[in-house]
C-alpha cells in the first residue's frame, strides 16, 4: 500500500479535480481512498461543500458501499472471496487458515496495523478458485500453503 | 538473426492470478539467454481457464498451445523445442483443435484471446468495427429494426428483447439520451463480462456506439465493478485509443455523429447490478433501487431516456449489424436466439468460458466440456444463474440451457454462470448463505428484502439447529412467498429461488441431524 497520510489540502485538490464530472461523488471517493487508503471523516465536510450536498448525504453514500473504508487499513490488505464458486473449492478452509494465521476476524485490522482481512463476494475468478487479493494482486488456485507464500 | 517467433501469453486477470506475468518474464529471459528472438504478445484468454497460463506459439501449423505453464517449466519447454511447436507433456497441439474450443460457436467471443486486446489495427484486421461501419449507413430506426429482428435478448439475466428496449428510448422525448453499460458482474460463477472487456474491449466500445447511434445518445457510461481493476485499466486505455483514432468523440470518422464514453467504477455493492440502483450509483448516490415505472428507457440516468444493457448484450450487437439479423437469429432454441457465453465454475475439472447457441444441455456443458467435478467426487448440486439462481440436482441436468426451459423448470439462466458442487456441499448451509448474502447486500428500500433476509437467516439457523423444524420450515416457506411477491427488485424477489430449490431438491439436508454445518 502506498497510501499517504491524511492531508486536507491534498483532499481538496482531489475533490476539485473531479468537480466537472456529472455524478462526481463516487469518482471523488475512489480517488480519496486511492490516495489515503480510506476516506477520512474530515473529508465529509469538504465533499459536502464541493458538491453542495449535506454532510448526511455524503455520509450516507460512503457508508452504503462496502468498498469505501472509514478507517486506515493495515499495510497489507487481504481480501478473500467467500462467494459460492469459491466455497465449492473450499474457501471456508482458506478463511479459517487466514483467521488463525493473522489472528483477525473478517473485517478486522490488526492492532499493529500490519494486516487487514476482508471478505469479498466474487472476484470474477470463479473457474480458478479459491481466490483472494493480496495487496491488489489477484491470486487463484489458492491453497493455504500458496497463500502463505504470498503473505511472506 | 532469424525471424522472431511470436508467442501469446494472456494478460487476462484469471491468467495473471496463476502466474502469467512470471511465465512471460521467464520466456523473455530464457529466449535472451539462448539468443533466440521472440515476440511476446499479451492477449486475452481463450477461455480455457483450466489451462492458464496458456502459452501459444505461432508455428507453421498455426497457434500451438501449452499449458498450464509454470515459470519454472519454461526452460524445459525451450529444451523440447516448443518454439517450433514440438511435443511436450504440457502441449495440446493446435489451440483451435482442442475439443473444448473447437466445438464452440463463438460470435461474441470470436476475437477474445486471438488478438492483442489494445490494438485497433488487430481489431480491424479481424473484422472489428464492421458492425459500426454498417450502422453509420443506416437510420436509427433501421438499426433498431435490425436488432429487433435478430431476436437478441438482454444477457444480464432478465432476457428482455433488446430491440424493444431500444425502440422505446428512440421514441422517448428527452433533452439528452444516454447509453449505460451494466458491467457490475457481481454473480458468483460469472466472469464473461470481465473476460470480454479484458480480451476485446473495442467490441464493447463498438456495441455501445451502435446503441448510441440507434437512439441518438451522445454520452455513454460503463459501470464497471471495482473488483475488476484489470478490466477497468484495459477499458480506459482502449477508450483512450479509440478517441485517438477517431472511433469515439466528436464527428466520428466524419459521420456527423458524436459519442463520448466514460468508465465509472462501482464500489463493492452487489445490488448496483440492478439497473435502477446502478443509475442511482452513476448519479453519485446510494445504490437504492427505484420503483418502476417509470422505466429507465423513459426516465433513466439524470431523468433522461436511457439504454441500460449488460456487457454481453452490447458486445453481441456488432456481429448482428456486421452479419445481419438473420445470421444471428438462426442460432439458438425456441425464443432464445443467438449464443450464450456459458461460464463453468466452482468445483469443475475444466472451468472456463464456453460460447454456444442456446439449447445445449447443462449435462453437456458440465461433462463434455467441463469434465465433471475437479475433486473427482460425485456431483451433487449445480447453481445456475448466480447467487439468486436455483440449485439444480444431477437428475435435472438434461435441461436445455435457454430462457424458457430454465424458467419452466423453476430455475433461471441469469448471466450464464454455472457453479458445480460435489457431494461435500451442505445445502442447508448454502440456503442460509443465500439469505445472509441478501441481508448483507440488500439496499434496504423495501421491507420484504431488508427484513425478510435477516429473518430468513435466523429461521434457517433454527432449522439447522433442529429447533421446531417442521414449524420453522412452514414459516420459511411463508417468508419466501412474501419476499418473492413483495420485493421491489430481483434481490429480494429471487433470493427465495436458491433457498426453496435447495429445500425442494435436497430435503434430506434440512432434517435435523444430517449434514449439519
Q: What labels would you give this structure?
A:
heterodimer, A: 152 residues, alpha+beta, Glutaredoxin, 2 domains, five-stranded mixed beta sheet, 7 helices, 5 strands, 43% helix, B: 517 residues, alpha/beta, Rossmann fold, Ubiquitin-like (UB roll), 16 strands, globular, disordered C terminus
Give the end-to-end Cα distance of chain B, rounded to a whole number of Å.
64 Å
Name the CATH class of the largest domain in chain B.
Alpha Beta
Question: What class, by secondary structure content of chain B?
Answer: alpha/beta
Q: Treating each run of at least 4 consecutive H or I residues as one helix, how many helices of chain B? A: 22
Strands of chain B, total number? 16
Strand adjacency order, main sheet of chain A: 2-3-1-4-5
> Any idea what the CATH superfamily of the largest domain in chain A is called?
Glutaredoxin
CATH superfamily of the largest domain in chain B: NADH-ubiquinone oxidoreductase 51kDa subunit
Global Rg of chain B: 24 Å
- Beta-strand share of residues of chain B: 15-25%
Percent helix range of chain B: 25-40%
Order of helices and strands of chain A: HHHHEHHEEEEH
Strand order of the largest sheet of chain B: 2-1-3-4-5
Total tally of structural domains of chain B: 4
Coarse shape of chain A: elongated
Number of helices of chain A: 7
Strand content of chain A: 5-15%
TL;DR?
Chain A is an alpha+beta fold and 152 residues long. Chain A has helices at residues 8-17, 25-36, 43-51, 55-64, 84-87, 91-102, 144-151; strands spanning 76-81, 108-109, 115-120, 132-134, 137-139.
How do the helices and strands line up, and which of them pair or pack?
The complex is a heterodimer of chains A (152) and B (517).
Chain A: H1 8-17, H2 25-36, H3 43-51, H4 55-64, E1 76-81, H5 84-87, H6 91-102, E2 108-109, E3 115-120, E4 132-134, E5 137-139, H7 144-151
Parallel strand pairs in A: 1-3
Antiparallel strand pairs in A: 1-4, 2-3, 4-5
Chain B: E1 5-8, H1 13-17, H2 20-33, E2 38-41, E3 55-59, E4 62-66, H3 74-79, E5 91-94, H4 99-102, H5 120-125, H6 130-135, H7 140-150, H8 162-171, E6 178-183, H9 192-199, H10 201-215, E7 219-224, H11 229-244, E8 260-265, H12 275-282, E9 306-310, H13 311-314, H14 317-323, H15 325-329, E10 332-333, E11 336-337, E12 339-346, E13 352-357, H16 362-369, E14 379-384, E15 391-393, H17 403-408, E16 417-422, H18 427-441, H19 447-464, H20 469-486, H21 490-494, H22 496-505
Helix pairs in contact in B: 7-8, 7-10, 9-10, 9-11, 18-19, 18-22, 19-20, 20-22
